[in-house]
Each structure stands twice: as C-alpha cells, then as structure tokens.
Amino acid sequence: MNREFEPSDSRPDPELGRMLHEALTGEDETRFVSEVMARLEGARSPDRAPSWDTVLGGWARAGIAAALLLAAFGSWLVTRIEERGAGLSVPETLIAAEAPAPQTETVVSALFDEE
C-alpha cells in the first residue's frame, strides 16, 4: 500500500521524522538546548517586539481613510435625501416616528430616480 501525504493524515511521516532527528540531534545536547532557550528569550525581548503605539500607528492611515470615505458617503446620502425629500430635513424625518416606514422601493426611487 502506497502512503501518499494528505493534509489531514495524523500518522507520523517516517522520512520527515528521520530528517528532523538528524537535524536536531547533536553531540552536545546541553549546548543545543541552551542555544534554543537563548533564542527564545531573545524573541521575547521587549526591544524586538513593536510597542502598542507602533502597531496602532500602522493602522492609523487606513482608519483615517476609511472614516473620511464613510463621512463623504454619508454626506452625499444626506444631501440626496434632503434634495429628494418631501421638504423635511434629516432630523425632522428621523424624529417623525409616528409615520409608517416608507417602502424600500419608495426610498430607492427617491434617491436614484431623476425627475
């Protein structure tokens, strides 16, 4: 039976195991362990890891661009609603809670139909 590699195969791969064993075993096991531990401590060192403000700073430009885009779209939408509305401003429309909600087709046609 030919065993081919499958990502969901849970059995150990003998060839990979042999290669790992050769690469990780050495004559001085204590020295190997101390080198691995030193690298691990170096990876955890605070001067290698970015600070929280650096990480947030990397997201700032994208966040500002998204906020500006959303504000521009909202402004355009409010302007279209006020131009096409029944003479009511957006706050007046939002406050008029007793009125039944308009049908979706009415809102879409009011926004996008040219009359």
Characterize this entry briefly.
This protein has helices spanning 14-24, 29-44, 52-84, 90-95, 104-112.
- Largest sheet geometry: none
- What's the overall geometry? elongated
Question: How many structural domains can be distinguished in the coordinates?
Answer: 2
Radius of gyration: 32 Å
Helix fraction, binned, reads: 55-70%
Mean pLDDT: 76
Structural class: mainly alpha
Low-confidence stretches: none
Our count of helices gives 5
> How many DSSP E strands?
0
Give the ordered list of helices and strands. HHHHH
Query: How big a fraction of the residues is strand?
Result: under 5%
* Euclidean distance between termini CA atoms: 75 Å
Provide structural commentary:
- The protein has 2 domains: 14-44; 52-112.
- It is mainly α and 115 residues long.
- The model has no long low-confidence stretch (mean pLDDT 76).
- The chain is elongated.
- The protein has 5 helices and no strands.
Keywords:
115 residues; mainly alpha; 2 domains; 65% helix
Task: Give a topology summary.
Layout: H1 14-24, H2 29-44, H3 52-84, H4 90-95, H5 104-112
